[in-house]
Amino acid sequence: MIIDRAPEALTGRDDGDGPEHNRWFKQLLTVDDFTPENLKSLDAVLVGFASDEGVRRNKGRQGAQKAPAALRAALANFALTPDQGERKTADVGDVVTAGNELEAAQSRLADTVATIIDAGALAMVFGGGHEVAFGTYSGIAQSSARAQQRVGILNLDAHFDLRSADQPSSGTPFRQALEQEAAAGTELSYAVVGISQPSNTQILFDTADHFDVRYLLDEQSQTENLGDVQRFVQDFIDSVDVLYLTVDLDVLPAAVAPGVSAPAAFGVPLPVILSCVRQAATSGKLIAADIAELNPSFDIDGRTARSAARIAHTVLTQHRKINHD
User: Fold this and answer.
1) What dihedral angle (degrees, nearest 10) is formed by the CA atoms of 127, 232, 178, 181?
2) Is the per-residue pLDDT at 269 higher than 60?
3) How far is the C-alpha of 84 from the C-alpha of 262, rounded, in Å?
4) CA 177 to CA 180: how far, in whole Å?
5) What three-state secondary structure class fits 318?
6) Which residues in the chain belong to E strands, given as ranges?
7) Are the beta carbons of 222 and 272 closer than 8 angstroms?
8) Cα-based angle 244, 245, 251 (whole degrees, multiple of 5)
9) Is residue 191's pLDDT more than 60?
């Protein structure tokens, strides 16, 4: 694994010893607690991607580089049941985009994600702008889990992120992934829940149709449509062999997630998003997940960070470890 910055120690409320008092700040292992040799014993590995260069290139408001630390701090105090505490999760620190060197940072993230997946653990990435997605996908593409398997990307997002641009950005990762797979003659399926029609130009809908992207609009993804959303997600999961879940926090309403690069005027309710996350985590197919676009510079009362932490908590406590051999 290629890590630029070691994780800082987490703190939280300490009510006593024993599994009945457990919280994430006590639970997370660090690089001092395991070695590459025992990486296979872990259920999940956290890695941060401290970057907002892709957001800058996409003309969004910057600040997402601070997200991994804010997300960890919000997660730290979340309580764990004794059963949840039996899972082994390690935090290896951050990959950092230095200046405008986004592509180099994505390559380092890919190497780290591939190492985690090949060890049989879930790669859980805390972004960063949504440029994190191409790094996470690239790690899957170079891992042993990719060979001869149908890979699916489930994106919970207000945007397709299928832009055509001179430089990769937070708006291009899934077009990059789909074009790379098409060039290699391999299969990649892409589905999105929460697309905002006013936030995507017609060319992006046309591009989605060109790549056979499955999607639900935000208006189709409300609480009253939960059954339809669950069927959409399950049908997609059933159509692939391995799954990558990526959550752009701008899919949530601005009142719940004000601290993002582009706040949603409408959005998908958090309970619907958590239902999708739970389906992915419990599918037995999830090999990687990331959370993108948390922007602590614009967060109000830590709302967005706590929403992101609840999503991460759901993934980490409910995912099923699978054998990729």
Assistant:
1) 110
2) yes
3) 34
4) 5
5) helix
6) 44-50, 89-96, 122-127, 151-156, 188-195, 214-217, 242-248, 286-292
7) yes
8) 150
9) yes
What per-residue confidence (pLDDT) applies to 32?
Answer: 67
What is the residue whose two structure tokens read 């972004």?
Answer: 127
Residue 28 DSSP one-character state: -
Res. 250: pLDDT tops 90:
yes
Chain-centre distance of CA 210, in angstroms?
A: 25
Q: Go through 58-69 and write b for each residue having 16 or more CB atoms within 10 A of its CB, e for each that does not.
A: bebeebbbbbbb
Q: Whole-angstrom Cα distance, residue 92 to residue 2?
A: 10
Top pLDDT among 43 and 320 is at 43
Average pLDDT over the chain, rounded to an integer: 93
- Laid out side by side, the sheet with 44-50 consists of 89-96, 44-50, 122-127, 286-292, 242-248, 151-156, 188-195, 214-217
What does the block give as tokens for 290?
A: 């990331």
Judged on CB neighbours under 10 Å (0-12, 13-18, 19+), 50 is buried
CA 1 – CA 92 distance, rounded (Å): 9
CB 137 within 8 A of CB 153: yes
| Rg of the Cα atoms in the chain | 18
Among candidate residues 231, 243, 182, 233, the one with its CA nearest the CA of residue 207: 182
Using an 8 Å Cβ cutoff, are 115 and 142 in contact? no
Whole-number pLDDT of residue 33: 67
Residues 126-167: pLDDT tens digits?
Answer: 998 999 999 999 999 999 988 868 999 999 999 999 999 888
pLDDT of 310 higher than 90: yes
Whole-model pTM: value is 0.95
Residue with tokens 């200046």: 99
How far apart, in Å, are the Cα atoms of 191 and each of 85, 178, 261? 32, 12, 22
What is the average pLDDT across 230-250? Answer: 97
